[in-house]
Design brief:
Elements (H helix, E strand, L loop, with lengths): L3 H7 L3 H4 L16 E2 L27 H11 L6 E4 L1 H13 L6 E6 L4 H8 L3 E6 H6 L2 H8 L4 E5 L11 H10 L5 E5 L21 E6 L12 E4 L2 H10 L7 H10 L2 H27 L3 E4 L6 E6 L3 H8 L2 E2 L1 E5 L2 E8 L3 H25 L1
Parallel strand pairs: 1-11, 3-4, 3-5, 5-6, 6-7
Antiparallel strand pairs: 2-8, 7-8, 9-10, 10-13, 12-13
Helix pairs in contact: 4-5, 7-8, 11-13
Length: 366
């Protein structure tokens, strides 16, 4: 007799049955005291909000938030769509512009995993290209490799490598793909290198989308708030697809507070501190015998290759939680989020312990 679970499985489309869910940092269920695994800000916010109208449905696109974000991004309000995190922006783009079992999206791997998961969910093919092609290839080579993909995702800075694609290269790629594909620049970490933003190109191109979030530099990962930035003509069909009430009244109130001029100035001060701490961490890592390679890039994280992947387990035993990765087919990579000074001192203690162990082993072998 067929079990209930088996009966449900037979109802699944093939692409969902075969789907591998995205493994977020929080889904790994690790335990520890210092959390540097999810690229979260170490700064917490306590917004001052007063809500008296929760019996009413919210504004589908809260005007105060839209206006403030448009001002922050140097765009017009009609070029801003508020979403449930940048992840919803990804999903809306795929659902709006791609036909299942027909279209593909182009990715430059390794990169953020939700692009692939979203495409797989909607039965959209993956045109898997490489970060090396994106960074070192010519624009003509990139456009040729994109072929007939409908969406081209460029994570900039890239997660998990931190690499940056120049603004001029993004401009030329977008220009050559006009009328053929939509270029989607995911700027989740752009506040850590604001001069690299492609938002300045939106008024030049009708086929450019920029994804943003309040989860990183704005220290509101728990709010799940993102923005899709593009010309109003491109956003028009997305507005048909988005849920009728995607943003709760509570979220809108907190987001509006975060986007006040005072809080934006505070965010920028925090970014300056975090970038300084990142430089210090990179110096420690580059001097550590336990580390083979440190990737140089932007964002509030550093990605590195360990000499011995057991070093990650030693960190866990010390209550230090970082993000272990398999990159380029090797499972000894680690991403460290930039925490506060006290949290990074714990990383230093871990590295010093590894260095001491390495020296002891070398002495025993000599």
């Amino acid at each position: 007799m067929m079990s209930d679970n088996s009966k449900i499985t037979t109802l699944l489309p093939d692409n969902i049955a075969a789907l591998t869910a995205y493994s977020s940092a929080k889904s790994e269920k690790l335990t520890g005291t210092t959390w540097l695994n999810a690229n979260e800000s170490p700064y917490s916010r306590t917004p001052n909000i007063n809500l008296t109208d929760l019996n009413r449905y919210p504004d589908p696109q809260p005007q105060q938030v839209i206006n403030r974000y448009a001002c922050y991004a140097n765009l017009e309000p009609e070029q801003v769509l508020m979403t449930r995190g940048a992840d919803e922006g990804i999903e809306l783009l795929v659902r709006t512009f791609c036909s299942p079992a027909k279209d593909s999206i182009a990715l430059f791997l390794p990169t953020y995993g939700m692009y692939k998961v979203t495409a797989d969910t909607h039965n959209i093919s993956i045109n898997g290209l490489t970060q090396e092609l994106l960074l070192k290839g010519t624009v003509d080579e990139i456009v040729t490799a994109v072929a007939d993909s409908k969406l081209v995702f460029i994570c900039n800075p890239n997660n998990p490598t931190g690499s940056i694609t120049s603004l001029e290269k993004i401009r030329k790629i977008t220009q050559q793909l006009a009328g053929k594909a939509i270029v989607v620049v995911d700027e989740a970490y752009i506040e850590f290198c604001p001069e690299q933003t492609a938002a300045s190109l939106i008024n030049e191109f009708s086929n450019l989308v920029v994804l943003r979030t309040l989860s990183k530099a704005f220290a509101l990962a728990g709010l799940r708030t993102g923005f899709t930035l593009a010309n109003s003509e491109l956003l028009a069909p997305i507005r048909k697809v988005i849920a009728p009430y995607p943003v709760s009244t509570v979220v809108a109130s907190i987001a509006a507070d975060a986007l006040s001029s005072d809080n934006i100035a505070s965010m920028r001060r925090q970014v300056t501190i975090l970038n300084s701490l990142k430089s210090k961490l990179k110096s420690w890592l580059e001097q550590s015998p336990a580390v083979i390679k440190v990737l140089s890039g932007e964002g509030n994280f550093v990605t590195l290759k360990l000499k011995d992947k057991q070093s990650f387990n030693i960190a866990l035993e010390q209550g230090l939680v970082m993000r272990a990765f398999t990159l380029y087919g090797e499972d000894d990579w680690l991403r460290i989020s930039i925490g506060n000074e006290q949290e990074l001192e714990q990383v230093k203690v871990w590295l010093d312990g590894l260095s001491l162990t390495s020296k002891t082993v070398e002495q025993e072998l000599s």
